[in-house]
């Protein structure tokens, strides 16, 4: 039996459906589904909705992990499955577990907290194959540059990569 592959997307809930970021995130969902990834995300609107929409449009699976602590259990209408958690920590644990690939889109404080906790957990794991984290968009250039210069040791720089857009992400994914 083929092992299930999971990709988790972190990104803002408040993104406009007409934005370029939203459209590209739909394409990311489609690409991941076409490459046999099951998508996990926070389950709400914006980038989470977009990746779910893309995945399910290609008959892929999109799992939304919502949280009572956030104030709503109801996920977006494109989800194949919704998992309701009590706390943000429980939510993040499910989003991280068994994930091979993380995609980070523009978001706010919630996205940053998810990413930083994920980075810390991944760097402490003692596994042969650590997941890769792709930051998509120029908004991440200064953030990642600062992290690499001041906070993250050189031997851990291979954990993540910045790509400017969907086409660059697609090229990277298909090379792996």
Separation, N- and C-terminal Cα atoms: 22 Å
Question: Helix/strand/pairing class, anyone?
Answer: alpha/beta
Q: Total number of helical segments?
A: 6
Radius of gyration: 15 Å
Number of DSSP-assigned strands: 7
CATH fold descriptor = Rossmann fold
- Percent in strands: 15-25%
- Widest sheet: strand ordering: 4-3-2-1-5-6-7
Based on CA inertia axes, which overall geometry fits? globular
Please mark out the parts with pLDDT under 50 across 5 or more consecutive residues, or reply none: none
What's the short story on this structure?
With 176 residues, this protein is an alpha/beta fold. The chain contains six helices and seven strands; from the N terminus they run βαβαββαβαβαβα.
